[in-house]
Amino acid sequence: MTVSNSSISNSELHNTALPVLTGRRIFAACLWALLWLILIDISLSALFVMPDSPLEQPSKLQKFFDHGRSVESKFRRMVGTDQESTAKIAYAGWLVEESIDQQPKAPSSPGRILVAAYGQSFTYNICKALNSLDPRFELRLKGGPAATLSHSHAFYKIDSQHQRADVVVLGILASSLPYMMAPTISTINFEGAVPYTYPLYSLKNEHLSAQDPIIHSLEELRIALWSKPAVWNEYLAMLRTTPTYNSWIFESDWFDYSSLARLVRRSIGQKHVYDATARYWNPNGFTNTDGILDVANALIADFAADVKAKGQIPYVLLIQDKGYKNHLALAFESQLKQLDIPYLSTHTIAPSTNARNFVDDGHFTADATMKIAQVFHADILKKLQKN
User: Fold this and answer.
1) What is the Cα–Cα distance from 95 to 184, expressed in whole angstroms?
2) Could you tell me the pTM of the whole model?
3) Which class for 181: exposed (0-12), middle (13-18), buried (19 or more C-beta within 10 A)?
């Protein structure tokens, strides 16, 4: 009887010995995988290396592979040993008096109205729209990138002795509110890290208490980074006591030298941003974790009392950026009404749940900004007439 070829083939296949997965083979495979990862990493680092000068604009891919750099490493790249090796953004937001102040300190002539505003780009945009709507309104704008309430409050305190504005505006941005739990926005704002600092406020026996941020200016930061590591370490020690600090995303280490490792840190950094924000906010509104709302309400009340004592009109802008609904109003409206502090919440004019009110970078569209400014304008005129 003839045995079919197919039977012989199947039998041979079943009897063929499969390669044994030994520890040696696994080790060799891992070694090859590691070698390829190293080669890919070296290639990416060589192809998309950041420009030597922080003054030079990197490409989109260079920025993509650099986003996961630690905050400390970002600062060291941003702030060089002199002005020529320091990025322009590093100068923003420091709470120092400008040696040359070119902004108006009082209305330029009778009939003009000076508005002094403390906040961030959202506040600036609304005030600039106010000025374009009615040129009688002159502007004095002080703030920093993504500035939080405590920064704006501190900037007002420093600047108040230099201005005789008719209306003094405090701009509170919803997404920036949790930043006030550290003396820098960069413990949370990992990818958009900027180095300026501000006092860390708390309540002691129902009174505001300000903790010094240790580093107060760009020059002090430059010295701490490049000449006096003891000062930088003291600053880090202070940050480690704050609830939004994560040493793994803030402090420099060998991950900063690897493109692939920076991608890993970026993903962990985004998780940290989510966790730190969720500590103080959820889809129903802000929570009073760590007493953040108590401190915020105390800062608003202190600002308004100080402005009123100078015979000026305080005005609080509650800026609800994308996704924050009416949450600043829920947090602060009760006290604002109780203390008779003029305010405007943007959610009634440009709802944060409507994506058409925002541009790609998260700011309001020009149309939405102008609508807010129109209501702001009408309300200020009423307050001035009443005053």
Assistant:
1) 12
2) 0.88
3) buried
- Kindly state the tokens that stand for 171: 């701009």
How many Å apart are CA 339 and CA 333, to the nearest integer?
Answer: 10
Please give the torsion angle defined by the CA atoms of residues 157, 158, 164 and 166, in that order, rounded to the nearest 10 degrees. Answer: -40
Cα–Cα distance for residue pair 215/218, rounded to 1 Å: 8
What pLDDT is recorded for position 16?
A: 59
HSE value, Cβ hemisphere, 13 Å, CA-based, for 44: 19
Instruction: Give kind and range of the element (H or E) at residue 204.
Output: strand 200-204
List, for residues 46-78, the tens digit of each pLDDT value: 888 888 888 888 888 888 888 899 999 999 999
Distances in Å between the Cα of 128 and the Cα atoms of 76, 117, 205, 219, 370 are 34, 11, 40, 30, 9
SS3 assignment, position 62: helix
Distance between CA atoms of 16 and 4, rounded to whole angstroms?
A: 19
Distance between CA 158 and CA 8 in Å, rounded? 93
* Per-residue confidence (pLDDT) for residue 12, from 0 to 100: 52
Check: CB of residue 321 under 8 Å from CB of residue 175: yes
Strand ranges of the sheet holding 113-119, from the earlier edge strand across to the other edge: 137-143, 113-119, 167-173, 313-319, 343-345
User: Which tokens in the block code for residue 270?
Assistant: 């985004």
Q: Could you please report the per-residue DSSP string of 91-122?
A: GTT-----SS--S-SS-SSTT-EEEEEEE-HH
Per-residue confidence (pLDDT) for residue 291, from 0 to 100: 97
Say whether pLDDT at 5 is over 70. no
DSSP, residue by residue, 346-367? GGGTS-TT-GGGB-TTSPBPHH
Q: Distance between CA atoms of 363 and 175, rounded to whole angstroms? A: 12
Kindly provide the residue ranges of all beta strands, DSSP E only, lying in 224-296, ordered along the sequence.
281-282, 285-286
How many Cα atoms are found within 13 Å in the side-chain-facing hemisphere of 255? 26
